[in-house]
Amino acid sequence: MERILDAAVAAAEAGGDVLRERRGQLGNVRVKSSSFDLVTEVDIASGVAVVRAIAERLEGARFVVEEPEVYALAGVTAGDLRDDEVWVIDPLDGTTSYVHGYPCYSVSVALLKGGEPAVGAVHNAAARETSWATVGGGAWRDGVRLACSDAVEFRDSLMITGFPYDRTTTLDKQLSVFTELIRSVHDVRRDGSAAIDCCHVAAGSADAFWEFGLMPWDTAAGVVILREAGAIITDLHGEPWSIDTRDVCAANPTLHASLLGTIRAILEAR
Q1: Residue 205, phi then psi, degrees to nearest 5
Q2: Contact, 201 vs 231, CB < 8 A?
Q3: Are residues 7 and 140 in the same domain?
Q4: Domain range spanning residue 89?
Q5: 136-145 residue pLDDT tens
Q6: Contacts of 185 (CB under 8 A, 6+ apart)
Q7: For residue range 94-118, what is the model confidence (pLDDT) as tens digits?
Q8: Which residues of 84-101 are buried (b: 16+ CB within 10 A; e: fewer)?
Q9: pTM
Q10: Is the domain of 135 the same as that of 194?
């Protein structure tokens, strides 16, 4: 497992090197699912660096990468989320922040085994710090062990969220939840990288995180980091995170139950 973890960390940091080197050199910027969902040439260059770093260390590795152009450019094999083992990569989580020069963007690298995250590394490129975890090995950031907070009340908590690319019904749901929660917590942060958000909760610098409309590459690495730090991450039905999960709720065990119940009550009352 140490060899695999080393590959994950090296890959995430290799992608981070590309992001820092290419700041201000975005190349072509295009849209994907909507005019708010951006991809740049830097996303692709980072992806190539990430998968090559793994492929050089682990023969036969298979990949699911957010930007599909990466496979041919890096000379690697595309995998499937349901493979026995597959690397799931987001080479630039927080593209909108990156495009605008807002310092919150990351590289997220996870190894799934049988659909479950076994190893995860998230490199916060702007802050130059890396969080990582393996199942049973704890969660760490640059050598310091991570543990989620012990907050039990909303009034004592700092929460994190994100807003979806879908600015129709999904955004309406999010705004309903946000409007209610902001009245009862210390505050709510929104920085634009779900992978970093997961790591903040794992480190106890935030108490909870919820978001709608995420993809597996947004959260896979964060899932194992959260779990190893003592937090819980589920969908909005309380089911454990899976590769099919799109709406997430993450917090320490006590606060998670309260947050999940509150979100569900808000949505049912709409």
Answers
A1: -85, -10
A2: yes
A3: yes
A4: 2-145
A5: 999 999 889 9
A6: 154, 155, 157, 158, 159
A7: 988 998 899 999 999 999 999 999 9
A8: eebbbbbbbbbbebbbee
A9: 0.94
A10: no
